[in-house]
Amino acid sequence: MADLNEGFRPEDFGLDAGEEGDAGAAADAAGSEASPPATAGGGSNPPMAKDDDSMRNIDLSRMKMVLDVPLKVTVELGRTKLLVNDLLQLGQGSVIELDKMAGEPMEIYVNDKLVAMGEVVVVNEKFGVRLTDVMSGVGMDEAHSGESV
Q: How far apart (Å, rounded) are the C-alpha atoms in residues 34 and 31?
C-alpha cells in the first residue's frame, strides 16, 4: 500500500522542507547538537532561533489539529450532457455513454479540487483507484482539464 503522504510536500502545508515531522523538535528538546537537514541544493538551513522553534511548534500543532478533519474524495468516471427529453426516456437497462474511453485515467478530487489522476483497480471485490499522477502547486484544476495523461 502506498504511503498516504507520498506526493505531498511540507510547503503545501505552510512548512519549510526541514519541518516535516517531530524528529527535529525532539532533537532540539533533547539538547542534541545534530546538524541541520540538508536542502535540495546541497547546502544547509541556517540555525533556528528560539523564536523560530516556538513558531514551528505552533505551526505543527495547528497542522495536527486539522489531520482529523474529514475530506470528500471523488473519483470521476466520466461526464456527458443530456437533453431533458433524453433523460425522461431513460429506464432500467438504459446505457448512458460517457466522454472517457475505457482504460483512460480517472480524475481524483478532494473537496472538489483536482489532486490526482489514477486507474481503476479492484480491491477485495470493491472498486479502488491507484494513483498514477499527483498534482502539486496552484492551478491543479487546469493541469488536466480536457486532456488525458
A: 9
